[in-house]
Amino acid sequence: MDYREVEGMREYVARLDHGRDWRGQIEDFAAAEDIDAAFFFGLGAVRDATLLFYDQGRQEYEAVEFDEPFEVVPAVGNISWLDGERFAHTHMTLSREDGSVVAGHLDTATTFAGELYVREFDTKLERAHDETTDLDLWPL
Ligand code: ZN
């Protein structure tokens, strides 16, 4: 395991905009506030979602699209740099009216309502290609 000691910096609470992409809003916020590393938690609801599942054998993401409303119970993620842009790596657990859930790595979701807590760190995290997994991971 590689690691780096970080110090907590600014903290934020935010309300996501209705009708906008969940992850895109977080990335826009990070750019506006010059955040180079952070973790966040979120909850709320979305109108649809596209989740990605990483096939470890083929080393490719497979998209699964859901065109239905969900509660976000919750979303968790982090902010770091990927290919020259801020990327909000986001995982979501989404529940239906009957309490059943789907979950995964978030690609896109249209926000119905959302609340966020963000904690910034005093470092810059930049993802780099990892040969073993073919993923973009933190070289710490
Ligand atoms: Zn992921």
Description:
It is a single chain. This protein is 8% helix and 56% strand. With 140 residues, the chain is mainly beta. The chain has a single domain (8-122), classed as 2-Layer Sandwich (60s Ribosomal Protein L30, Chain: A). A hairpin with a 5-residue loop joins strand 6 and strand 7. Bound molecules: zinc ion.
Q: How would you describe this structure in keywords?
A:
single chain, 140 residues, mainly beta, 60s Ribosomal Protein L30, Chain: A, eight-stranded antiparallel sheet, two-stranded antiparallel ribbon, 1 helix, binds zinc ion
The radius of gyration is: 15 Å
CATH architecture: 2-Layer Sandwich
Q: Tell me the span between the first and last alpha carbons.
A: 9 Å
Oligomer type: single chain
Q: Given the C-alpha coordinates, what overall shape results?
A: globular
State the order of secondary-structure elements, H for helix, E for strand.
EHEEEEEEEEE
Helix content: under 10%
Strand adjacency order, main sheet: 1-8-2-5-6-7-3-4
